[in-house]
Amino acid sequence: LPASAFTRRYLESGMRVSNNDYDVTQGLVGFRGDFKNDWNWDVFGSWGKALYTNLQDGNLSRSRLQAAYNNPAVYASSGCAQFNPFGAGNVSPACAQAVTIKATNVQETIQTQVVGSVTGSLIDLPAGALQFNVGAEYRKNTGEFRPDQFLSSGDVVGFNAQQPISGEVSVTEGFIELAVPILKDLPGASFLGLDLGYRYSDYNLAGGVDTYKAALQWNPIESLKVRGSYNRATRAPSINELFLPQQENFPQYS
After folding, report:
1. Which of 104, 127, 182, 237 could disulfide-link 192, Cβ–Cβ 3.0 to 4.6 Å?
2. Helices (H), the chain
3. CA separation for the pair 216, 182 (Å, rounded)
4. pTM for this entry
5. pLDDT digits (tens, 9 = 90+) for 8-66
6. Which long-range contacts (CB under 8 A, 24 or more apart) does 231-238 make?
């Protein structure tokens, strides 16, 4: 006999319900001080943790359904005397409960950061003081995704299997910024200044990368400002992008 297909919507199991819970903890401690000659220093450290829990109810278990199809009396001890999927209303509450499962996703991210900088004036120029900021920064990001056994095995009907993810990325950076006044209080130049910045980032997985900026500010008169800038920026990949294992997906067709 040719194979046949059977599809059914199990309304007896109730609605699919998803409850999302977020728990965020964060702390920061810093110190500031002054040197002579208008130099200032600033040091701080921070730690933060975000915990996301996703509770799913009303899901159907693929393996439990298949067991009921193979043997309609498999859940007799749970009050489901005969599992009958044919016809509306023939799946009793006890039978619906026997094939319904709860699933849980937990995602945790932690960031640790330490930053120190010194700000001050280097020399006095005709248009004002040449100001600078120099410092260093350390960041570490860790992330973890923990699906339960139902989700990781693909046992939840209607969802692809999701594998756990875990990884860590850290970076050490040094940076310097300069504010250079060029002209001031002149005809056609109430102010003209240049802002320069450079940062070197050393990632534990990707190595070193340079970023920089140059911005020009021109005030032809006090009430009008014209700005232009050129920047080079980079984006580090996320924990998911770096450590995502092979996953299932829906079939593609074009």
Report:
1. 182
2. 62-70, 93-98, 149-153, 239-243
3. 10
4. 0.79
5. 888 888 899 999 999 999 999 999 999 877 899 999 999 999 999 999 999 999 999 99
6. 234/201, 234/209, 236/169, 236/171, 236/203, 236/206, 237/169, 238/143
